[in-house]
Specification:
549 residues; alpha/beta; Aminopeptidase; Glucose Oxidase, domain 1; ten-stranded mixed sheet; seven-stranded mixed sheet; 24 strands
Length: 549
């Protein structure tokens, strides 16, 4: 039998015995169905094959392929027997977004100091979006280097030191000060402070005119090609209210361009990164004037979340829901790479959608339904920083107080039979005991996130639920697979992350083995039905940042 383990420093002191006892709460019918193969790896495979085919054109938000994807998901939910849970008796929740696409041939960015001027080239040197949603945006301001752009009082860290940054152009690194001490920025694990989206949010809060992130592979965790493909295209934003402030530029500079910029001030990338990692860091006015002008194509986007439900059996509890989520979007049709302009998104995230559909089939097939209901939610615009789930959290189809938990699926690797399940974030919730018990029943080791430095907890749709106070985490598989040599999964992950993530080459392969996605679906099925039958709703552990409001 495969060894079951969990890291007590990460998952707390819940005893294994308590976890085992929680097995008694698992729905017997659900367990029998899981054991008899109600979850089909073959059906997941075919859903992934179709959703990632060229016919769906990369499932772009506001593009034809995205509309085809949502129609397919709605039809499959209906065929599964899951009822419409969207607006006006439909399977859809419209999400009002604005698409902003920088016109690269008319994008201008320059820096000037001491009579020397540098003009930066679109895509090669910089990318970015005018978050003010205007077709023509001009800005200029003094460049101030602010380290990692973090103010975190709980760790006694302040990169701003009280400096007034109104109207400035902030220059900074993404990520956060490095360290292995779990009492300092959670050690190796990336916190929300390290996420690039936080940098723009904090810059806006401080009145900056624009924010430029200096890219390095080390601080970003991925190469410049990922930044180019993610930012050199149309980006969806939630529509701004009248008078709502926004940055004129949310931008990135390549490392080579960053060296040129800092060189105007007699600085280097490595030198400034070393300074940013020190607790005594102070903001550095660079003596550089940055100017920019962005011409943008701005349009209202027609896009939607897809929602289906299976009602519960208890008249008193059927108004409460276990939510399963997965984003349906990828990058659509964008800049070609080696002649291919369709960003198929097979692993990211046709796999999650395939699992979501299979979960709906399994719930609908239960002869005796759990006490609570299930909501199956496939959201839009995750690749634009979770805009679809953010909108859902602000306009829920099920009130937050009636939502038991969100179990999310995002990029589940189809590389064989997994030895490990990854449920990073479960340790923050009272559902941990059940989660551990089910892993043991399924002979799966519970493995901490193999790459905590990449901040996965803050990069997928469960995070929108968490910010609304709803217990939430993603279910994935680890990097060890039966019948594969040690390190196989890690090697495959590195290859995917380096060569295929957010690239047209994230395509379906006939030789993929979908056993692991089926295992992840089985796991979520058992955990969800268990929670659906409990007396009390799950919560965050005492003192957690996201505790139910």
């Amino acid at each position: 039998m495969e060894r079951f383990f969990f890291d007590p420093t990460r998952y707390g002191t819940v005893s294994v015995m308590r976890a085992i006892l929680c097995l008694s709460a698992i729905s017997a019918a659900a367990l029998v169905l899981a054991q008899e193969g109600s979850i089909s790896a073959g059906r997941i495979r075919e859903d992934v094959r179709f959703l990632s085919s060229d016919a769906l054109e990369g499932r772009g938000v506001g593009q034809r392929g995205g509309d085809l994807a949502t129609e397919y998901l709605a039809r499959q939910f209906a065929q599964a027997g899951a009822l419409p849970a969207g607006l006006q008796g439909s399977y859809y929740q419209d999400v009002p977004l604005v698409g902003v696409e920088t016109q690269g041939d008319r994008a201008e960015l320059s820096a000037e100091a001491h009579g020397k001027r540098i003009d930066f080239a679109w895509l090669e040197d910089f990318v970015g979006i005018g978050a003010d949603e205007r077709p023509d945006t001009r800005f200029e301001g003094e460049a101030v280097f602010v380290g990692h752009g973090i103010q975190a009082p709980e760790w006694n860290w302040d990169d701003f030191k009280g400096l007034d940054l109104t109207g400035k152009v902030l220059v900074l690194f993404t990520n956060e000060p490095p360290g292995d001490d779990p009492k300092f920025f959670d050690g190796r694990a990336l916190t929300y402070y390290g996420r690039w989206v936080y940098k723009y949010e904090e810059g806006l809060r401080r009145g900056a005119r624009a924010v430029l992130i200096l890219h390095t592979d080390q601080t970003a965790g991925y190469g410049w090609d990922v930044v180019r493909s993610s930012w050199g295209r149309e980006t969806p934003f939630l529509k701004l209210a009248a008078g709502e402030p926004a940055l004129a530029l949310e931008g990135w500079l390549s490392r080579a361009a960053a060296e040129k910029l800092l060189g105007l001030a007699g600085k280097t990338v490595d030198g400034m990164l070393a300074a940013a990692d020190r607790p005594d860091f102070k903001p550095v006015p660079l003596g550089i004037r940055i100017e920019g002008r962005l011409h943008s194509k701005v349009r209202d986007l027609r896009t939607r979340n897809v929602a289906a439900m299976v009602p519960g059996s208890d008249p008193n509890l059927k108004g409460e829901f276990v939510v399963y989520s997965a984003h349906w979007d990828h990058l659509g049709i964008a800049a070609p790479v080696n002649g291919d302009s369709i960003y198929n998104g097979a692993i990211d995230n046709a796999t999650g959608c395939g699992i979501l559909l299979e979960l709906a089939r399994a719930w609908a097939a239960l002869p005796h339904k759990p006490r609570r209901s299930a909501l199956f939610l496939s959201v839009t615009a995750e690749e634009a920083v979770m805009k679809g789930s953010e909108y859902y959290a602000a306009h829920p189809l099920v009130p937050a107080a009636k939502t038991a938990i969100d179990l999310n699926y995002d990029a589940v690797y189809p590389w064989g039979r997994a030895k490990e399940i990854v449920i990073s974030g479960a340790e923050r919730t009272t559902a941990l005991a059940e989660a551990l018990a089910i892993a043991r029943r399924m002979n799966l080791a519970v493995k901490p996130d193999a790459h905590p430095e990449q901040g996965h907890y803050f990069r997928s749709d469960h995070f929108s639920f968490a910010r609304a106070g709803i217990p939430a985490f993603s279910i994935g598989v680890g990097t060890e697979f039966y019948g594969k040599p040690p390190g196989y999964g890690e090697r495959m992950f590195q290859e995917y992350n380096t060569l295929h993530y957010h690239q047209p080459s994230d395509e379906f392969h006939d030789d993929w083995d979908f056993t692991a996605p089926a295992q992840a679906a089985d796991y979520g099925f058992l955990l969800g039905t268990t929670i659906a039958n409990q007396e009390k709703l799950p919560d965050w552990v005492p003192g957690d940042t996201f505790r139910r409001r």
